[in-house]
Design a protein that fits this description.
It contains eleven helices and eight strands. The protein is α/β, with parallel strands linked by helices and 216 residues long. The protein has an eight-stranded parallel beta barrel, surrounded by six helices. SN-glycerol-3-phosphate (G3P) binds next to α7.
Length: 216
């Protein structure tokens, strides 16, 4: 399973990339606003750090505007994936960008039917928001399980990018379900490395070797 960082904060992206385990980055207008920087600027800088798909989201909502905006975003760097909301107006944009060889990520997916439609349109990635589904009392990972099953059934090449991940448990379940990618907030990404028995084990080995650990 590929791991993306769901962030527009360059320091976080650099630290995650330094592990050698970062496969891509997703951004959204909320994350860009949090970075306090200009959209195009941030996206271009992220693309210079991470050699993998970088999702940059359109801010318009009509078909014509999203198409123009998507083509502009794609020009920023060959690794840019155009992120589009799961609305009916975006579906022809997905198909036209795919025909032009531009990757797309259909975001704000909350149901199997939405995932099916985006896959039929030719989306490269679809992003089910598991955390937000859980927030409403639905089971986000069950929606992912159903999407994975439907895509397998019809042999869609569209990749399932699990988003709105809040905990390492979401990551574990995504991996068990065979999701293609999970995009993670920085803290969740770093939590994946930890286990209390690993920390205790390292401390004990160093202690037994007569070494005072500087940082474990
Ligand atoms: O990738 C989508 C993500 O940014 C949304 O996460 O936690 O705002 O639901 P959240």
């Amino acid at each position: 399973m590929k791991l993306f960082l769901d962030s527009a904060i360059l320091d976080e992206i650099k630290l995650a990339a330094a592990t050698g385990l970062l496969d891509g980055v997703t951004t959204n207008p909320t994350l860009i606003a949090k970075s306090g920087r200009k959209h195009e600027e941030v996206v271009a800088e992220i693309a210079a750090i991470v050699n993998g798909p970088i999702s940059a989201e359109v801010l318009s909502t009509t078909t014509a505007e999203m198409l123009t905006e998507g083509k502009q975003l794609a020009k920023l760097h060959p690794n840019i994936t155009v992120k589009l909301p799961m609305i009916v107006e975006a579906m022809p944009v997905v198909t036209q960008l795919a025909a032009a060889g531009i990757k797309t990520n259909v975001t704000l997916v909350f149901s199997v039917n939405q995932a099916l439609l985006a896959a039929k349109a030719g989306a490269t990635f679809i992003s089910p928001f598991v955390g937000r589904l859980d927030d409403t009392g639905e089971n986000g990972m069950q929606v992912v399980a159903d999407i994975v099953q439907v895509f397998k059934h019809y042999k869609f090449s569209t990749q399932v990018l699990v988003a709105s991940v809040r905990t390492p448990e979401h990551v574990r379940q995504a991996a068990l379900l065979g999701a293609d990618i999970a995009t993670l907030p920085y803290l969740v990404f770093m939590e994946l490395f930890n286990h209390p028995l690993t920390t205790a084990g390292v401390e004990k080995f160093l202690q037994d070797a007569g070494i005072t650990p500087t940082k474990v």
